[in-house]
């Protein structure tokens, strides 16, 4: 039977703005996604019966797992044989790095190729969005501006290879809790709902990386820090390590710092011997989808 070994890459958010709440309960977002070299591996094989296994015992093995759900959608939609999936996990769970969404997208692409389905990009994106707001990005990968729930994507030029240090606290931050806390903090402060920043040139902001740019921030940081004060202490500590840009990614809890060189990045990592870290680099769309 046919089998494929595929890599499923993580993402970071160069910036994340949370705009007004939508009628469907979601928030409108504006963000810039970036693929990075940290990845999971998925072995996907044609089978007579579906099965999912992983080396990460914290993950559900049923359809609560996005990879399982993605495989089942493809089997149901296109009447193909089931697949078995074996996941080797490196992307932290619940860290704001999009691991589950990336796994789901990798399964969609792999099943499409495994069975030579030749699904249109438009239909594949619709299936991806039905699984989660971040999943469509991982079909495109690279560097992209996103709006709506995060699914309205515009490709941006690759920022080049930038060394990254990821600081990964043990405790994750609940995405739902982070958004709820942000609404609460804004209501307390009397802050009106924000709107998209018309005319902002994200290209010029990205060109200044990794020297840093004040517009590349994350609206969910304040909420995450108030929910998890030790995360703020780690953030303050990371900011002293010489990074040009340093922020939380997604709804957290992973903190990411961009450095001018691998030597500076590796020296900063040495100072976090008591905390889980990972090193990575930015990668292009072609690298993420090869």
Task: Write up what this structure looks like.
Helix 1 runs parallel beside helix 2, helix 5 crosses helix 7 and helix 7 crosses helix 8. This protein has ten helices and ten strands. The chain is globular and about 55 Å long. 34% of the residues lie in helices and 27% in strands. It has 290 residues and is an alpha+beta fold. The model has no long low-confidence stretch (mean pLDDT 92). The strands form two sheets. Strands 1, 2, 3, 4, 5 and 6 form a six-stranded mixed sheet that branches. Strand 1 and strand 2 form a beta hairpin.
Biggest sheet, in brief?
6 strands, mixed
Q: State the low-pLDDT regions, or none.
A: none
Radius of gyration: 19 Å
Q: What string, H for helix and E for strand, traces the elements in order?
A: EEEHEHHHEEEHHHHEEHEH
Average residue pLDDT? 92
Question: What is the tally of beta strands?
Answer: 10
Q: State the share of residues found in helices, binned by percent.
A: 25-40%
Please state the overall shape, judged from the principal axes of the Cα atoms: globular
Number of helices: 10
Strand content: 25-35%
């Amino acid at each position: 039977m046919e089998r494929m070994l595929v890599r499923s890459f993580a993402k970071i958010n160069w910036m994340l703005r949370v705009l007004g709440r939508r009628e469907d309960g979601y928030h409108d977002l504006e963000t810039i996604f970036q693929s990075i070299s940290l990845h999971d591996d998925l072995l996907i094989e044609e089978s007579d019966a579906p099965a999912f296994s992983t080396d990460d015992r914290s993950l559900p093995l049923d359809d609560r797992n996005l990879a399982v759900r993605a495989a089942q959608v493809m089997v149901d939609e296109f009447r193909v044989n089931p697949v078995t999936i074996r996941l080797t996990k490196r992307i932290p769970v619940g860290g704001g790095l999009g691991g589950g969404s990336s796994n789901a997208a990798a399964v969609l692409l792999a099943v499409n190729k495994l069975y030579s389905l030749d699904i249109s990009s438009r239909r594949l994106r619709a299936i991806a969005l039905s699984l989660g707001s971040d999943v469509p990005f991982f079909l495109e990968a690279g560097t992209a501006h996103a709006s709506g729930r995060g699914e309205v994507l515009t490709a941006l030029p690759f920022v080049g290879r930038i060394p990254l240090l990821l600081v990964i606290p043990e405790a994750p931050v609940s995405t739902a809790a982070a958004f709820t806390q942000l609404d609460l903090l804004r209501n307390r402060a009397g802050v009106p709902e924000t709107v998209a920043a018309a005319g902002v040139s994200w290209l010029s902001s990205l060109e200044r990386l990794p020297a840093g740019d004040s517009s590349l921030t994350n609206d969910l940081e304040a909420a995450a820090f108030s929910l998890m004060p030790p995360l703020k202490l780690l953030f303050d500590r990371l900011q002293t390590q010489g990074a040009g840009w340093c922020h939380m990614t997604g709804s957290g809890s992973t903190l990411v710092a961009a450095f001018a060189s691998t030597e500076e990045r590796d020296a900063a990592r040495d100072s976090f011997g008591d905390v889980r870290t990972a090193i990575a680099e930015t990668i292009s769309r072609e690298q993420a989808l090869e």
